[in-house]
Amino acid sequence: MLIGDGAAAVDPHLSTGCELTVNGEPSMVWNLAIGNGAREPSWYSLPPGKTATMSWPLGEDLFPKPGDYHLVMTLDGQHSATDVHVTR
């Protein structure tokens, strides 16, 4: 979820500036999901105090087999990372 916390509407660059890497490699599954399909107007002009959300069932495509995965989400030079351990 992305929250508009400024005083004016902004373009959050979700379709063009958001990248996910899995174990250091760009995720093609993510690129296809985020780059295709219809989007709410908030994806391109996020008003103050409003949110932009969307979800995709990418679990099995991101994590094709048991193991450890390191994910890094990058948006406009800001990075957020997490580690996932898949046991199935």
How does the SSE layout of this entry go?
Elements: E1 2-3, E2 18-22, E3 25-26, H1 28-35, E4 51-52, H2 59-62, E5 67-75, E6 78-86
Antiparallel strand pairs: 1-4, 2-3, 2-5, 5-6
Quick summary:
The chain has helices at 28-35, 59-62, and strands spanning 2-3, 18-22, 25-26, 51-52, 67-75, 78-86. It is of the alpha+beta class and 88 residues long. It has one domain (2-86).
Features:
alpha+beta, 4-stranded antiparallel β-sheet, about 15% helix, two-stranded antiparallel sheet, about 90 residues
Number of strands: 6
**Numbering strands along the chain, what is their spatial order in the largest sheet?**
3-2-5-6
Secondary-structure element pattern, one letter each: EEEHEHEE
Report the total helices: 2
Largest sheet: 4 strands, antiparallel
The value of Rg in angstroms is: 14 Å
Cα-to-Cα separation, first versus last residue: 27 Å
Uncertain stretches of 5 or more adjacent residues = none
Query: How many structural domains?
Result: 1
Q: What would you note in describing this structure?
A:
There is one protein chain. This protein is an alpha+beta fold and 88 residues long. 14% of the residues lie in helices and 33% in strands. The chain has helices at 28-35, 59-62, and strands at 2-3, 18-22, 25-26, 51-52, 67-75, 78-86. The longest helix is centred in the middle third of the chain and has 8 residues, at 28-35. The chain starts with a strand and ends with a strand. The mean pLDDT is 84.
